[in-house]
């Protein structure tokens, strides 16, 4: 009679699955609650907008000019400000503000050409 003791038994796998699900369920509920907060969603929206404006600045025809814009959302407007500085090497900075408070900013350096 040959006995094979390699691997896990079905009972061990079910116990491990029960432990992981007992830990995982509250954790996913917490993460879902965290991402549903207005501050987090404003920040995610600001990052997406700033990256879009930065890409437009780098690849667009009018990208190397200072610009201010306002985007209206259901929960309030976001103000976007693009500043370009420098002669040979341009520094592009995008600021995203809500209610006069900067919630995200991003900068990069570009050789115009």
TrEMBL record:
InterPro entries: N_methyl_site
One protein family per Pfam: N_methyl
Domain of life: Bacteria
NCBIfam families in the cross-refs: IV_pilin_GFxxxE
Protein name: Prepilin-type N-terminal cleavage/methylation domain-containing protein
Organism placement in taxonomy: Bacteria, Raymondiibacteriota
